[in-house]
Amino acid sequence: MSTVAIVAPSGIFDRNRLHKGIAFLQSNGFTVLKSPNLYETHRVTAGTIEQRLSDFRWAMQHPDVDFICFARGGYGCIELLEHIDFSCLKETCLLGFSDATAMGAAISNGKMDNFVHAPVIHSLSDHCDEESQNHLLSFLESKGTHCPSMVGEWLCHPLEKAITSPIVGGNLCMLTTLLGTPWQLDCNGKILLIEEIAEPAYKVQRMLKHLIYSGMLDGCRAIGLGSWSNCRLPPDVSWTLSDLIIENLQPMEIPIFHNLPFGHGQENWLWRANRLYRLEESATLVYVGSEKEDNEESEEMENTQKKNRTL
């Protein structure tokens, strides 16, 4: 079975909840290694920059580690980005979401596919639903090859023909924070997936406008929406958050779909950034694999067709 390293590059976690998540992984046969400074704290983060960097490098360089998992989100990842050479990950996958979006953007922009948008260990056993847990376990057991399809619904501009593209994204607030930095997410030619928690409607609108005005969404092929947990509307209004999102994104004239099972809610199915997914006419995202795997499959199909023609 795989070996999982737990690191805390972001916020301070609840120890009892983290221990429950670790026990859940161990009970399913995985070896769990704790980073040396895991229980350190410094103001609002799980240790100083130096401590968190040291732990992340320890996990990247450890010969036995197959996967690196975030203990929790919160705040802090952005402070580490300028100090990390993500190419040292090699084949190791990094799993997390929320604040981990910062590392996901840096990894995706570097043409790598090591970032997996997935539950953090802090909330794995007592918040995620069973299906989300099972997808994570299957991903770890399969050494990173199991990625579930996700069924959504169209909001506007539905597709008439399926498209295949890499997917990128994460938390809306974090993506907005990265604008104007060296790690601003590159969405050109990609499908963007976003989610949010506890932001009022006016802030959601402001952040969406910020993404548009910054140019970050230029060349984006489609946008998929996960959960919007606790994103409050003003009192006594007749419109919905979906109405607000349509009004702001519809002018882009690209497919927009929602109700995907990922984000801060109990449903948090994993997806692998910068891997190819097929967005079908039914608003379903189907995992295809890496570009290399896709090219090999196409080549194999072409060779089979040539062989059949010669028979």
Describe this structure in words.
This protein has 311 residues and is α/β, with parallel strands linked by helices. The chain has two domains: 1-146, 3-Layer(aba) Sandwich (Rossmann fold); 147-311, LD-carboxypeptidase A C-terminal domain-like (Glucose Oxidase, domain 1, 3-Layer(bba) Sandwich), CATH 3.50.30. Helices cover 31% and strands 21% of the residues. It contains eight helices and 14 strands. An eight-stranded mixed β-sheet has the order 6-14-13-8-9-10-11-7. Strands 2-1-3-4-5-12 form a six-stranded mixed β-sheet, sandwiched between helices. Helix 6 packs parallel to helix 7 (241-249).
Offer a quick outline of the entry.
Helices cover 31% and strands 21% of the residues. It has helices at 15-27, 49-61, 101-109, 130-141, 172-177, 201-214, 241-249, 291-310, and strands at residues 3-7, 31-34, 67-70, 93-96, 115-117, 150-151, 153-156, 163-171, 191-197, 222-229, 256-258, 271-272, 276-279, 284-289.
Got a strand count? 14
Rg calc: 20 Å
Q: Give start-end ranges of low-pLDDT stretches.
A: none
Strand order, largest beta sheet: 6-14-13-8-9-10-11-7
Largest sheet: 8 strands, mixed
Instruction: Return the structural class.
Output: alpha/beta
Mean pLDDT: 95
State the helicity in percent bands.
25-40%
CATH T-level fold name of the largest domain: Glucose Oxidase, domain 1
Determine the strand fraction and express it as a percent band: 15-25%
CATH class wording of the largest domain: Alpha Beta
Order of helices and strands: EHEHEEHEHEEEHEHEHEEEEH
Domain tally: 2
The general outline is globular
The CATH architecture of the largest domain would be: 3-Layer(bba) Sandwich
Q: What is the count of DSSP helices, taking H or I runs of 4+ residues?
A: 8
Q: What is the H level of CATH, i.e. the homologous superfamily of the largest domain?
A: LD-carboxypeptidase A C-terminal domain-like
Spatial separation of the terminal alpha carbons: 45 Å
